[in-house]
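I'll show a typical protein example:
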Amino acid sequence: MKFLLVFDFDHTIVDENSDTWIVKCAPEKKLPNGLRNSYQPGHWTEYMGRVFVYLGDNGVKEDEMKRTMTTIPFTAGVVELLGFIGENKESFDCIIISDSNTVFIDWILKAADFHKVFDEVFTNPAAFSSAGYLTVQNFHAHHCAKCPKNLCKRKVLKEFLDKQSERGVNYKQIVYIGDGGNDLCPVMFLKKDDIAMPRQGYTLEKKISQLAQDRSPVECSVLVWSSATDIMAYLKLLVKE
């Protein structure tokens, strides 16, 4: 039986937020206040849709966006970590569940030749319109009150596991690696043999420790990481088993 590795993307695989990194393409590398203040909690995808319209209106083309996105830095140790996973695909299935979008993640992974490491990427579908504007859609509809309206990562993970199970694929352990508040919902779905790896000092770690203080800790084990070298050390132990 294999291990399933589930990665968030922003602030986990890359050390920035890919959606805010694209602002480097905007005139003077910033957005007008009215646009910046138009974000409403839980409606990030709609907000990014308006950002992409603004970039398109200002003549920002696909090739410039691609050039900018492929300069985004990977988190410390991630290049080595993904290399290690790639060499050990017989032990690991590996997926991304992210609130970024298909175009950005595809560009970044392909530029670094990491797209083969991942079996599937679940993120908001994006494409360029005939006018050359980037458009983005919600990943799915769901009924989870805890998650942003476009994406419940628990639902994605559960559906992926169900589909794998139907194909006769079950996992020895799920390792969930993330940083954000929207990673808590899938972490709470993990079982006691699974492991959550929240990034040190980020929202997910704070929310998990808050739950422990409130005496309703998550069921899975928790291992905090600060560099992807910490993640790799744990995965090496799994491979040795």
